[in-house]
Amino acid sequence: MSDLEQLTQQIISCRKCPRLVEWREEVARVKRKAYKDADYWGKPVPGFGDPQAHVLVVGLAPGAHGSNRTGRQFTGDASGGFLFPALHRAGFANQAEAESRSDGLILKDMYITASGRCAPPDNKPSPQELNNCQPYLEAELKIFRPKVIVCLGRIAFERILKIYGARNSVYKFTHGSSYQMQNFWIVCSYHPSQQNTLTGKLTIEMFDKIWEKVKSLL
Q1: Tens of pLDDT, residues 92-120
Q2: Which tens digits make up the pLDDT trace of 119-149?
């Protein structure tokens, strides 16, 4: 197996965080009424995409009835319903739909991962849980050595800064900001959650500009 395949298997089998293990498995067992007949994934969700990617997208954590159900990042929930059409418009995805691991979605020059790999209660992983997950993100950064890291949300941005030992006082999270660090770029975007998209904090036009900027940095 490749280093990436080995890492994927390590992530899927992880049980480091008792609270998250209990929650993700309970959600997969009880299920949401709309998905009562679905076979929930209920395990840590690995990254996915182009193994030769130059762009690494970092989100927060799986949604309880999205990625925790489908087993693929941003798949089967409203956040993905906003993200993948944008990636399709920008040429990073072959299609705009993302419903299951077998839906034919292919990413080009992009790999999507997260700060936390298990669905957390209230969408809020604890600092210690994020610390437990950090080695997986570090391993992905070493494997890919991306030219551009896109941070979807402040937590992803702060996690990347922590990994590279950068000070928050120097680098600030604002939507659309970009920073050159060593031999790569960091680009910041609001997370495409309904909390941001339904309120107009993140619009389609704002999001499209993020991916235009990413392409210009490659």
Answers
A1: 999 999 999 999 999 999 999 999 999 99
A2: 999 999 999 999 999 999 999 999 999 999 9
Assigned token pair, 84: 């993948």
pTM of the model: 0.97
* DSSP letters spanning 24-74: HHHHHHH--GGGTTS----SPPPPEE-TT-SEEEEES---TTTHHHHSSTT
CA distances 190 to 20, 40, 68, 78, 177, Å, are: 25, 28, 22, 14, 10
Which pLDDT belongs to residue 42?
97
Per-residue buried b or exposed e for 4-39, using 16+ beta carbons within 10 Å of the residue's own CB: beebbeebeebeebeebbebbbebbeebeeeeeeee
